[in-house]
Every structure is written in structure tokens, then in C-alpha cells.
């Protein structure tokens, strides 16, 4: 199992449906712990493009 991707910026972008912190959808977040490793890896593979979409809309996130 892959650890949660949560970075405690838990705001869903209304236009895309992606969390502005981790890039996952609400369904992916709630089912993460029970998802197969294969499903988790598929979600991980989609995140770079989702982050690009979010950054175009909201700007880059600041590193803590």
C-alpha cells in the first residue's frame, strides 16, 4: 500500500474536481486506503497532469 498523499491543503477545485493539495478527487481520497496498489499507482500516474491543470487555475502551491 502506498501512503496517503495528503498534504493538509484539503480544498476541492470546483471546476476540475481535484483536491488543490494532492490532486485526487473526493472519491479517490475516500477510497485510497482500500484501493489496490495497482489502482493507487494509476492515480499517482495521473497526478502530474492534474497538478498542471490546478496550477493554471490557482497558481503553484508554496512549499512549507
TL;DR of this structure?
The protein has helices at 26-31, 37-58.
Distinctive features:
globular, mainly alpha, 64 residues
Share of helix, binned: 40-55%
Structural class: mainly alpha
Element pattern in H and E = HH
Number of strands: 0
Largest sheet: none
Percent strand equals: under 5%
Structure description:
- This protein is mainly α.
- The protein has helices at residues 26-31, 37-58.
- The protein starts with 25 loop residues before the first helix and ends in a 6-residue tail after the last helix.
Secondary structure elements and pairings:
Layout: H1 26-31, H2 37-58
